[in-house]
Specification:
Structural class: alpha/beta
Number of strands: 8
Order of helices and strands: EHEHEHEHEHEHHEHHEH
CATH class of the domain at 82-269: Alpha Beta
Strand order of the largest sheet: 6-5-4-3-2-1-8-7
Low-confidence stretches: none
Largest sheet: 8 strands, parallel
Mean pLDDT: 93
Strand content: 5-15%
Shape: globular
Oligomer: single chain
Distance between the termini: 14 Å
Helix content: 40-55%
Length: 270
Amino acid sequence: MAVLRPRVMGIVNVTPDSFSDGGRHDTVEAAIAHGLELVRQGADILDIGGESTRPGAEPVSIEDEVMRTAPVVAGLRALWDGPISIDTMKPEVAAAAVGAGANIWNDVTALGFSPASLPTAVDLGCDVVLMHMKGEPRTMQDAPHYDDVVSEVVDWLAVRAGEVMAAGVAPDKLWLDPGIGFGKTLAHNMALTANLERLGATGLPVLYAASRKRTIAAIDPTAIQATDRLGGSLALALEAARRGAQIIRVHDVRETVQALSVQAAVMAAG
């Protein structure tokens, strides 16, 4: 039975210090092999990252990030024709990745990191994920505060999307990400998840990314290691899908694809 489910974006971290799988795929060959394995498991999109954005993460130079990611993108593009995303805040890295075959720029700063980010996105003509983040990775979890987190995040992303479209990025190229865990407490993350429809009401597709994040351990203190958080990751993915997310970004592709497919089958039957 064919059923419609959200697209699943598989994470390929080419970093030594990612919070979840740092160092496991930090060579070009290992990262390409991992990406192809995620495709076999059902990933619709691959997201390639060369700089950790976990709380407290240290910056990576443009040169190092390009060296980590562009060959992986090129290697995957030679073997797979599906969508490939570059997870970076640096326009130079995005340009190198698109030149190597990527067609999505996933930016945690919503094209705000550099004055060159927005014009680069216009020139590249690729899809762009605009994510909300309060602060920057090294300090974003230092007591973040909102008066109304849902309204503030939705309004900020709507305004930013308008600015990006006014600069020349086509509306059908934009995705929005509420930034679960990026300058947000457990309460903020749960409120955003519970009200995800409000972000979808902007008319732009919503990407939801909570896979293995610390917010799960805040609910279940036994989930000390990131790899202990599969159950929570699946629960959040299913809830996000139920509330309209169209792309779910995850580490555990096989399990997420299965869970979303079963959910979609139940919903279709109803």
